[in-house]
Design goal:
The structure holds two protein chains of two kinds. By secondary structure, chain A is an alpha/beta fold. Chain A has helices at 28-31, 60-65, 69-77, 96-108, 119-131, 148-156, 164-174, 177-182, 185-189, 196-207; strands spanning 17-20, 37-40, 47-50, 53-59, 83-89, 112-116. Chain B contains 39 helices and 20 strands. The chains are: A alpha/beta, B alpha/beta.
Chain lengths: 214, 1036
């Protein structure tokens, strides 16, 4: 399909509104979109949350009855939008096969699937897509500025079986991270709450080489 | 070495035939390892290639040694792990013999063709109870049977309790192992019964009541558990939680029960319920720690729990504490636990000072000097002229503290029993000539953990025999109290204000100057405390080292006995052995104990020596008495229960007196076996149990459970055999169908009877399986690390050709364009938090056209993201400002980066929010939602249809230009730990990641910690280097 045929993108009156396709009228999910404005407008997607972001909506229960519906919608979507999502409401028990088929067709059509498990969650997703549309991804990037105890806790709990009480025990017994690395397995074993498996995991993490010498 | 009893021989007779495949289920403690080792010895030959699968490292080394002892040495059992390079592995496989391999490695080798599968003589599989369709061992069996129809599979287990869940557990295990012969040998098996009943040991059952304060704590814990349980039931009223009662909560499997009960609604339960379940776990542990820890350690552990519960990760006060911490029972428990250790009193002269029980700053110098003094005089005087007791009040003790230091009740019992054994031994010796009877007079004390071993050893070292009952361990407890005080100081430094030495001024400003001063004062004190302590420790170490050196020559005799020096072994000895004097075990005032790292190694009773006598003064006789091997009657060996290694230990030590400090079913059986192996052995066993405690309870229930498990298995085997004719010997195609069959069964649970499933097998063969096979096999490249998960096994079962490789980018490469990163739900949360997922997606987007994130849910858990309760509270605050979206976004940003915001208190961004942001940031990223590994396998095959196959070499080098080690084994845990350190991160920058640079320079995390600040800076840059170095060495 030539890209020239892509339908025009509707520019909402206020930049803060989600543009909702009129065919979504009566969808209970609309009620669950809170904290952002909504307006109806003729868009190729069901929900247009940004200039380049369009979301299609599909309830699996509806899909079961009309399996061809979503394909026509995807076809109509054509090449519009850079960021294309299919929001699936998983409201049936036998979801495995439909999800598998949809996964395949969405991969071909460059659409990302998001699955919600309730109307509330679906509405929440739409709200967030609107809110985060132009937000930098700092929140999910690595954070460097954290305080000592938090880093220590997350570092040590990355070792299997080590919990926050153990972190506390380790810190109060050995003082520093470097001292922990020097401690013998006997020292570990004598700490309260440290069993064989936990000690072995800790030893593996601290003392075993990262790579073998193949 | 270890003798085979008649029933052992009968079992081996049954199963040794290499033409058959067998599953042996034996009751625990009856010497399964003996049987395995004997079998392996039979199979040992260059012409055979026998693989030992699913053995833990401890078992590998123990089996290896046992084989060595029985004369199966060259080359004996060779152990392969991820450290062994693949070239070496191939060589070893070619040589044949007995080889033990880690399952994950074996799978990879089988897939890569590094091991000649058709030449394998047979597999010996341990822990058969863990076999399910999803584990690597089942995968191994499938790969094995695919190319090798004649090799044998011998599977073993001594844990029948595990094969009881589900409809027909035994059948499932047999199906996965593809074998049909099962041998059940419970303890009540007639033959075993006959062998063991013939000679019975003389058992003295000692039931010790708990002390008053202990039973107070015990009932308080039970009360807390009841509260927590009823809370749990109240918050999940719609669930059937009848099975959850305090009785069940004694067992380790309790967590599993709760999880199982809640699995269907796990996504709906809030963080509160999860916390409650966690609390139950903690309380259950407390019950056991109450019995096995000394009063001080127990109190210290309680304090740690309180500490970690009141402060959140970021140091702010936690909002949601565990409910049981707030109950009356809990506060009574804490009080009583403290009262067992010490009382806080108002010192007579300084009434004004109110008590945190720490040492005062003012007199510390003197106090510590005095303490050193005291300690020295104490230790010398003990050696020389006897005891200088009771020392009234050590100077190091804070004035506000009145030590109580209650003994554990069993300690008294222990000292009485030891006395009794003394007199018994003497009676024996006067009646008999030594050597007439098998066994020797070594006293063996068995405990539940190495920790309690240490405790008992310390107790016996410092025991004061003349003290009234209940006060015998005072000296040891005082030593421990001192250690505790130092520790207490360091625990306090968790305080968010105290330890930030970098900028104390600006931090303490916020909390008010008075407070700040107080903290600093406290800190100063802590420093003094710890410095003095350190000094003491150094001194002690020196002393110990010196002593050891002096005696270095002697213990050689002991350790050479089994050629493995430096093992666990505690010899303690009594002085006053000359003549026929009464030997007081209690006089073991100067004991050398070498307590080495690995308790699972076999014991060598390192004989230890008595007093320090100058070498020059020694005559030859003196030398014998002072440095020779101790006569057995003077040694006490303290060991923790372990696995079948205990059998060999018993055979080596040959004790006539065994004290079981804690009850243990297996060990009783071991003693039975040991007793039956030696004719005429007069064995006496003391069996100590706390009356009406969870210990007793658990012991009885364990016996019952095992019996029931065996009864079920016997029944099921009866049914199995009658239907087994329906199953032909499985071939590869059948194996696939078996897998399909399990899938079918999953879809329609309950409907599949044996007859039905046989019909289905035929149907599926015609319909599904054949088509897949006739096609040219499609390939998927899978990262080595992924072989821990079940997906590769399932993919293989669905007919995909699997190529294992070490990948830098992605986990699964489906086509040249599609690269998948698999995340289980827990992984997803964790890698979102660490920011690792962002980096992974970034790298995938750079290298592949279709980067895919696979979110995989667990089979039996609900298919949903489980953050609903948090989601609601997240939406709420925003509704106040509906008109200011821009502002709102920044508030979110602030609330996220603000460290004081506690994620546990619900307002952090949800997983959904992060997912939204991720998909918005990477428009090309696709998400696969899979309800189970089975579904994933379907989706993968679907995606691969009519697509080109991926290229292995290209996949490996992708994104790995910087890493010279590409394609080698990795230590994932260590790497994860490294990446979570500040300044390292998981990013892949130009010229390689920081982590990569570190890994090239240092071999392990430990080596990184040993670098100097300059070296660290040179390694990863000045800024991050400083941060990292400060992090590593903060608090030293």
């Amino acid at each position: 399909m030539p890209p020239a045929l892509a339908p025009p993108v509707v520019v909402p009156n206020s930049g803060n509104n989600i543009v909702v396709n009129p065919c979504q009228r009566g969808n209970p999910v609309l009620e669950c979109i809170r904290n952002v404005g909504k307006e109806f407008g003729d868009t190729p997607a069901d929900y247009q949350v940004g200039r380049t972001t369009g979301i299609l909506f599909l309830s699996l229960r509806y899909h079961r009855l009309h399996p061809e519906y979503i394909l026509t919608r995807i076809e109509k979507l054509g090449h519009s939008y850079d960021r294309r999502f299919l929001l699936i409401l998983c409201d049936i028990e036998q979801h495995r096969d439909p999800i598998r088929e949809l996964t395949k067709s969405c991969l071909i059509n460059n659409i990302t699937i998001i699955i919600a498990f309730s109307n509330d969650e679906a509405g929440h997703y739409l709200t967030m897509y609107k809110q985060y549309d132009s937000k930098p991804p700092d929140m999910i990037k690595e954070r460097v500025d954290k305080d000592y105890n938090a880093i220590l806790r997350s570092a040590l709990t990355s070792i299997p079986k080590v919990n926050k009480t153990d972190v506390e025990t380790l810190r109060s017994t050995f003082g520093s991270f470097a001292n922990m690395s020097k401690a013998t397995s006997d020292q570990f074993r004598n700490l309260p709450g440290f069993g064989q498996v936990k000690v072995r995991n800790i030893e593996n993490a601290f003392k075993k080489p990262f790579r073998n010498d193949a | 070495m270890s003798t085979l009893l008649p029933f052992h021989k009968a079992i081996i007779e049954e199963i040794h035939d290499p033409a058959t495949s067998d599953l042996l289920i034996l009751a625990r403690g009856l010497g399964l390892r003996r049987i395995i080792c004997t079998l392996m010895k039979i199979y040992d030959s260059n012409k055979n290639l026998v693989l030992l699968v699913n053995a833990s490292p401890e078992e590998e080394s123990a089996i290896g040694e046992e084989l060595g002892i029985t004369g199966c040495r060259r080359p004996g059992l060779r152990v392969l792990g991820y450290e062994t390079p693949s070239k070496e592995r191939q060589e070893l496989y070619k040589q044949g013999g007995l080889i033990s391999v880690t399952s994950r490695i074996l799978v990879v080798d089988m897939l890569q063709g590094d091991i000649p599968v058709h030449l394998i003589t047979g597999l010996i599989i341990l822990h058969a109870e863990r076999i399910t369709p999803l584990v690597a061992e089942a995968f191994i069996v499938r790969l094995f049977r695919e190319k090798n129809k004649i090799g044998f599979i011998k599977a073993f287990t001594d844990q029948p309790e595990h094969i009881t869940s589900g409809m027909s557990p035994l059948k499932n295990v047999m199906k996965e192992l593809q074998l049909r012969r099962v041998h059940l040998y419970p303890r009540f098996h007639e033959y075993i019964n006959k062998t063991l009943e013939r000679r019975r040991a003389d058992v003295v059952e000692l039931s010790q009541p708990l002390s008053d304060s202990m039973s107070d704590i015990h009932s308080a814990i039970i009360q807390c558990m009841t509260t927590t349980l009823s809370e749990l039931k109240r918050s999940n009223a719609n669930l059937d939680l009848d099975d959850l009662n305090v009785e069940n909560a004694y067992f380790r499997s309790f967590d599993a029960i709760v999880r199982y009960q809640l699995a269907s609604v796990w996504h709906k339960v809030g963080p509160k319920t999860k916390q409650l379940i966690n609390d139950l776990n903690v309380l259950r542990q407390l019950l056991f720690y109450l019995l096995s820890y000394d009063a001080l350690s127990f109190h210290a552990y309680l304090e740690t729990i309180i500490e970690s519960n009141t402060l959140s990760a970021s140091g702010a006060a936690r909002v949601h504490q565990s409910p049981w911490l707030l109950t009356d029972a809990a506060s009574m428990m804490f009080d009583t636990a403290q009262r067992r250790c010490f009382k806080t009193i108002v010192p007579p002269e300084e009434k004004a000072v109110i008590s945190p029980p720490v040492i005062d700053l003012d007199d510390d110098e003197e106090a510590w000097a005095a303490l050193d003094e005291l300690d020295r005089t104490n230790s010398t005087s003990d050696k020389g002229k006897g005891r200088e007791k009771p020392n009234p009040r050590p100077a190091w003790l804070p004035k506000t503290m009145q030590p109580i230091l209650e003994d554990q009740p069993k300690w008294d019992l222990l000292s009485e029993v030891l006395l009794e054994i003394e007199s018994e031994t003497i009676r024996f010796q006067s009646n008999l000539k030594p050597g007439q009877m098998p066994g020797n007079d070594t006293v063996l004390i068995m405990t539940s953990s190495t920790r309690s071993c240490d405790l008992i050893r310390d107790f016996l070292d410092d025991m004061d025999p003349d003290a009234e009952p209940g006060r015998k361990g005072v000296k040891m407890m005082q030593k421990r109290l001192r250690g505790y005080l130092g520790w207490r100081g360091r625990l306090g430094s968790q305080d968010p204000i105290g330890p930030r030495t970098g900028n104390p001024a600006n931090k303490s400003g916020s909390s008010g100057s008075a407070n700040g001063k107080g903290k600093e004062r406290e800190k100063g004190r802590d420093e003094v405390v710890s410095e003095a302590l350190r000094k003491k420790d150094r001194e002690k170490e020196e002393k110990a080292a010196g002593r050891r050196r002096m005696r270095g020559g002697a213990p050689g005799g002991g350790s050479s006995r089994n050629g493995n020096a430096g093992d666990a072994g505690a010899g303690s000895n009594a002085d006053g052995t000359q003549g026929n004097e009464v030997i007081y075990v209690d006089k073991i005032d100067d004991v050398m104990t070498l307590w080495s790292n690995d308790s699972s190694d076999p014991t060598a009773t390192l004989t230890s020596l008595n007093n320090e006598i100058d070498l020059e003064l020694l005559t030859r006789e003196d030398f014998e008495t002072a440095y020779g091997i101790l006569p057995a009657e003077q040694t006490i060996v303290i060991r923790a229960y372990s696995d079948d290694t205990d059998d060999r230990m018993l055979a080596e030590i040959q004790p006539r007196f065994v004290i079981m400090f804690e009850p243990c079913v297996e060990f009783i059986r071991r003693i039975e076996v040991y007793r039956s192996s030696y004719a005429g052995l007069a064995l006496r066993v003391y069996h100590m149990v706390y009356a009406n405690s969870c210990e007793e309870h658990r012991y009885l229930a364990a016996i019952r459970k095992e019996k029931e498990a065996f009864e079920r298995l016997v029944k099921e085997r009866g049914v199995c055999i009658s239907t087994s004719n329906l199953y032909p010997i499985l071939t590869h195609t059948d194996a696939i169908q078996t897998m399909l069959l399990t899938l079918e069964e999953r879809k329609e649970p309950g409907s599949a009877t044996a007859g039905d499933s046989a019909v289905k097998t035929i149907n599926t063969r015609l319909a599904g399986g054949r088509r897949e096979l006739s096609k040219e096999p499609s390939k998927i490249i899978i990262d080595m690390r992924e072989f821990r998960s079940t997906l590769p096994s399932l993919l293989h079962a669905s007919g995909v050709y699997i190529i294992p490789a070490t990948l830098t980018v992605g986990d699964y490469i489906l086509t040249p364009d599609i690269c998948v990163e698999r995340k289980s739900l827990a992984d997803l949360v964790q890698s979102f938090n660490s920011g690792r997922l962002y980096n992974q997606c970034e790298v995938m987007s750079v290298h592949y056209k279709h980067p895919v994130l696979l979110i995989e849910f667990e089979e039996d858990k609900a298919f949903s993201l489980n953050f609903i309760s948090e989601m609601k509270s997240y939406v709420k605050p925003t509704s106040k400002y509906p008109k200011k979206p821009a502002n709102r976004a920044t508030t979110f940003g602030a609330s996220i980066s603000d460290p004081t915001n506690d994620p546990g208190s619900s307002s952090g961004p949800t997983i959904q929010a992060k997912l939204v942001l991720l998909t918005l940031s990477f428009p090309r990223l696709r998400v696969i939602w899979s309800s189970s590994p089975y579904a994933t396998s379907d989706i993968f095959t679907d995606l691969k249809k009519n697509q080109p196959e991926p290229d292995q070499i290209k996949a490996i080098v992708t994104g790995a230009d910087w890493d010279p080690d590409v394609g080698k084994g990795v230590n994932a845990v260590a790497e994860e730990l490294l990446r979570s350190l500040p300044g390292i991160g998981s990013g892949v920058g130009a010229g390689g990641s920081v982590a990569g640079a570190v890994m090239r320079k240092c071999k392990s995390v430990k080596e990184l910690c040993e670098l100097s600040e300059e070296e660290v800076k040179a390694l990863i840059g000045v800024g991050p280097g400083r941060v990292l170095y400060e992090f590593l060495h903060k608090g030293e």
